Amino acid sequence: MIVIATPENDSFKYFPGDHVGIYPINRQDIVDGILKRISTTCPDPDKPFQLQLRKTVQTIEGPSHRWYPHERIPPLTMRIALSRYLDITTPPGQQFLRTLATMAQDEGDQRKIKLLATDSVRYEDWKSHLYPNLLEVLEYFPSVEPTPGFLLTHLTPLQPRFYSISSSPEFHPEHIHLTVAVVIYKTQNNALHYGVCSNYLESVPVGSEIACFRYVQHILRDISDKVYREIVQERGHFYVCGDVSMAEDVNQTLRSIIQEHGHMNPVAVDNVVKRLQEENRYHEDIFGITLKTAEVTHRGRVEAKNRQSTSSS
């Protein structure tokens, strides 16, 4: 069980079953192994650098190309980037492999990588059998020498992991309890793999700080004016991913935001949400609905409405 101290302010509230997102840190042995493999192109992994993006801006004299600091990645070292910012455990996709093939010094490695990058069936079999992380991919193809720039721009960002809160604020108002199963498994070729976040949490010493954030509907309320402007007025898209309980809470939060900022009655709010769905601007990827779908969905919606009315009263 993981115990997290809650922020010391009255505005923070939670309910059992709410979610907390944890930003993990990648395993040090994988990071060290990757740094060793790219030592030719990255001789000093602890040297700070600033990733910049080239953008075209319009000036009085016409288009101008300028370099700007990356909006999401602060100045950092390659070691920190691989540890905290980049996903190095998910098997690389075919587009990644397609570019990686150009960095292979050996024709055999290049041919094998190109085959995986172009043959979807072979790629899926390879991924299912090995489920390789980045270090294992580099070990499978030893002649490949990727550059730091390639890894920074082609690896996906390390995503937070979501855990349901298993405590009640009535008994633990100053703490959040998470019940976490430590994931360790073997791939089909008998390689030992570790769940990124569960093993990270297991290794964190008592009293340490971890990077986490509140359940998503609280964040929506904090930026409610921006949500209304970008989703309703500017016809943006709204994405929801998670279990049915979270999805219903988010749905009710969005409805309350539309009602408040649009000065609408419930019927008008329903029409706005319906229009979002009809125009394919409300996207949901919901898990946790397997049996008795209608019953579960209805119960989740009712519970979400009850929580919404309780928190606003």
Written account of the structure:
The chain has 313 residues and is of the alpha+beta class. It is 44% helix and 17% strand. The protein is built from 13 helices and eleven strands. It has helices spanning 28-37, 78-85, 94-100, 107-118, 120-130, 134-140, 148-154, 196-203, 216-222, 224-233, 244-262, 266-278, 293-312, and strands at 2-5, 19-23, 52-59, 62-69, 161-164, 175-178, 184-186, 192-194, 211-213, 238-243, 282-287. The strands form five sheets. Strands 5-2-9 form a three-stranded antiparallel β-sheet, with no helix packed on it. A two-stranded antiparallel sheet has the order 1-6. Strands 3-4 form a two-stranded antiparallel ribbon. A hairpin with a 5-residue loop joins strand 7 (184-186) and strand 8. The chain is globular, with a radius of gyration of 23 Å. 21% of the residues are buried. The model is unreliable at 288-297 (pLDDT under 50). Residues 1-241 form the FAD-binding FR-type domain. It comes from Trichonephila inaurata madagascariensis.
Low-confidence segments, given as residue ranges, are 288-297
Secondary structure: helix percent: 40-55%
Number of strands: 11
Shape: globular
Order of helices and strands: EEHEEHHHHHHEEEEHEHHEHHEH
Number of helices: 13
Instruction: Give a quick account of the main beta sheet: strands, pairing sense, barrel closure.
Output: 3 strands, antiparallel
